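Usage

Read records sequentially. Each one opens with the input sequence:
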Amino acid sequence: MLQQMREAQGWLIKGVLWAVVFAFIATSLYFGMSNSSPTSSEVATVLGQRVGIAEFQRVQNNLYQNYRNIFGNRADFDLRERFNFREMALEQIVRQTLLKRMAKQERLEVTDVELYESIATIPAFQEEGKFDPDRYLAVLRQQVPPIVPQVFEEQQREALLGQKVYNLVTAGINVTDAEVVDAYQRENEQVAARYVTLIPSLFNDEVTLTDEELQAHYEAEQDRYQNPEQRQIKYVTIAPSRFPYKGEIAPDLIEDYYATNEDEFTQPERVQARHLLLKVPSNVSDEREAEIRTQAEGLLQQLRDGADFAELALEHSEDEATAEKGGDLGTFPRGQMVAPFDEAVFALEVGAISEPVRTTFGFHIIRLDDKLEAGTKSLEEVKEEIETTLQKEREQEAALAFVDDIMVFLEEDPQQFEALAEQHDLDITTAPFVPRTGRLPNLAQAPQIVPRAFDLNQGAIDTQSTSDGTHYIFRVAEIQEASTISFEEAKERVTNDLKQQKSRDLANQTADDWAAKLQSGTSLDELAKTRDMQVAETGLFKRNDSIPQYGRSAAFSRMAFDLQPGESAAVHDGSRHAVIQVTERKPADMADFETRKQATREQLLRQKQQQARAAFDNALRDEFQQLRESGDIVVNPQYVF
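and closes with the structure output:
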């Protein structure tokens, strides 16, 4: 069947690959399937296989952490509101099951050699570029919670097996010479346009609102004007300090830790320095920059004449963070400062003062106070530190084992929460009611608890841990449903919302009206004058370029390349609405085609392979939805709903 998929690659854009993949899945799944319901200690029954809480929680947590890495500092509740991690985790488990069944039908397998070679190439498990078994075990042990090697290796084997299925999907896809020529011409064609940009704020003063309109908007959008749902949790705290480790740490374990984690005790070359900064604004003229440089050179001369660096920095430095400390930057390694500063300070001899160094911040005068060579602390120097670390690890392991034991009982009967807490002398804390977007100050180290509480039913139990090994077992104690805010309370918000909506509508409509007038013969300059606006010009640009004076916009670029010189149209690009008029089209210069032919072929091949993978992913996703809706996947509503 996968051979059919590869043969169908020429029809990919027409959707035939999707149909072939869907047919493959649909005809291979139902053998051995079971609709039996999951037990209270299971999350779901997926294609005859039972999904335990631990596996489901692991997949869900991995997804959540991946999205946190993608979104950076975005607040936790934004992610929980935007993404249904429970459903996503279930889909991922189903997807893996589908891939394993396909691999079995195609007689694909991952050998032990392939598995261990893939693990050996992971940088985290390497020492000096080579796989280190001790480091491998140590890294897995340091995860929160720790990962057993057999579990990690099984996860890695499943990932490699899935990749083999995907490789079969894309195998055999090729690119013709004609496609390469077309792609090169399309990529290197250029167009130029004139345009004006209409943004909603330009129309704010033209918006009028009546009380009737406000009332109607409020009633139509009542879901937006509500006091949010709030929840209250009760929780107990289990810290590693509850399980003090009183035994001795064997010397060989200390030595093993030292050998495995040598990087922890290796210090790079470092310097101790002071600096004096005269800032240079980003928009400064050349004349003003020259004046600031002259001022820096004057201060440098004072230092060479014997002036005290700390006093001069206190008086003249514009670095607010260090001026009061006499310019003291403390000790830092190579690469911590911006490149010009870094190069200058590490090139100095101890006691020497630099010439003025220009960085994006301004002009720096640097004095090197000390230079510390790179080196590794001896085992004797860090022995007590390692012993403390290993003791803490054992305390954390004991805390984890205790929590696991408690959770076994709670998964069977959540009503035991208070009784178990009393039995084990655990204080129950009742938190105040909080919305999904709220924070509990006493749980600042575990901010994910609040959004997680909103994923559970009332009375449900869950646990979260922090990086220091502290665990929280919590129960959703009470739920206060969302309630609608009265019109009078919400009136200011309603007014702002409706005003913004009408401004957007006016900007949109004006862009369409102007485009029609351009087609009728009115000039773009005349239209721009009616609003005292300037017409901008892009100059020539390619399809994938950032548009000069406008920025990157797929909508603008797509429309511009659809038009011929003299033609015009409106572009609706999110909150921006532009009216564009194409002035020039320039065909691709084929002079460099031969030199770029292979790169173009490879790029086009990657695109077609990505399209094949996307079609395959869509087929898997649709099959998951069908199985979900048909009841062939049976879920425990306590965890997935």
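Summary fields computed downstream for this record:
- Residues 546 and 553 are 7 Å apart (CA to CA).
- The chain has a mean pLDDT of 87.
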